Amino acid sequence: MKKPRIGYIIVLVWLLFFVIKGIFESSHVRCDVLKEFMDYKYNGLILDKYFDSTDHSTKTVIIKNFNETDSVTLKLLDWDNSGVYYKINKNDTIFKKQGTDTIYLSNKKGKSVYLLNFGCDKKK
Asked: What is the pTM of this model?
């Protein structure tokens, strides 16, 4: 029986190291994105929703806040695992209180509440 070559073992250990490192770094980035998202507040009308082909097909939502003159571009939903992006429609009303990870949508069909999931343990 052939013995595994030490070179193959070293390469496998090296690859395993980077896979594990990537998993932990991804979790850290997701927590940073959650913190950034929680800083925002929205209270307005969805003007548009699309995949931005100029920015790696990022999920993009354009919001016209009721109390402001400019519209807001929301691009953090790529990190969300709840699927709320696919529930948002043009002309929906969106509300999100600052300091929360909850989005409220309303339209002709009714009102919905979505707790966003960025894959981050908020207790950390």
From this structure: 0.72
